[in-house]
Specification:
Layout (H helix, E strand, L loop, with lengths): L4 H12 L6 E5 L14 H16 L3 E5 L1 H17 L6 H20 L5 E2 L4 E6 L2 E6 L16 H5 L1 E2 L7 H11 L20 H6 L7 E5 L4 E5 L22 E7 L4 E6 L7 E12 L9 E6 L7 E9 L2 E11 L6 E6 L2 E8 L1
Length: 348
Amino acid sequence: MSGGVDSSVAALLLKKSGYDVIGVFMKNWSDASFLKDKKMCPWEEDQKDARKAAAKLGIPFYTFDFEREYKEKVVEYMINGYKNGITPNPDVMCNKEIKFKIFLEKSLALGADFIATGHYARIEKKDQKFYLLAGKDKNKDQSYFLNTLGQHELSHTIFPIGEYEKQKIRKMAEKFGFENAKKKDSQGVCFIGELDVFEFLKSKIPAHNGEIRTKDGKVVGKHQGVEFYTIGQRHGIGSPGGGMAYYVVKKDAKNNILYVAEGENDEDLYKGGFLAKDAHWTLDKPPKFPLKCRARIRYRQPLSECVVNEKEKDVLEVKFLTPQRAVAPGQSAVFYDCDIVLGGAIIQ
């Protein structure tokens, strides 16, 4: 229970279904120094809201402290990714290493049969196999962030709100009398909040000025280090005037040069394909290649048709029928068959 309305209603639905429910809050991050709102430490407020929801439900409530593990597995992963010139996805890693690994393992060790979260996703069992599906609410679907789950995790997980739309969840929360029924959705990095990523990274990675160049080699500005930027980024790049904006299209980490395109529709912003490593499949085994499916390369991006081939073990070659905008190394490419999540891999 995160303190939000989604996990509170998830617990409510489980209790109504006859489950023996225990509420657990995970304390994973307590440093508020780099949050955009420095007036409060969000985990304390979230824990209080979660405890109130558990009390309203009449269920036991505990706090698991995973701050050390979160720093090692998620925060360090994020910092090292940026240091290496890529754009890591901490939310995917949080699900992989924290929620559906150490939290799941500890819960099972304490005697639980399942863990449940407030994710907008679904799980279906067919022929002794567990399938991960997108949530019914397409505007809130979070299956993209769950692509690293396998059969073990899926067999011990329940997503109670995956069949509902967000508006319905809030109405159920209001009807039951949850104080957090109108609480704003959490934003930013998993368990951290609205992090000022630039300031946070500057505290971990020394600034080193370099040139901003157009694709024809024209120097149009300076930057503080290619590590602080991502492909497709506009904010913080500057503008050449005349209403035309610059967008990052390439990062030369070796020479600390940031290459930009002029305008959001520049052809250099688009790629028809890429390689992806660390492939993972939700059925725990690779599909038959070539794999014709649909995929997205960022959260909430519309699904696009593609063909996936295996270049070597756990390395995929992904080719889209329609070129994709702002393909960022380090982000996840997630593959779908209709609503079924087949798996994912990390863009190179």
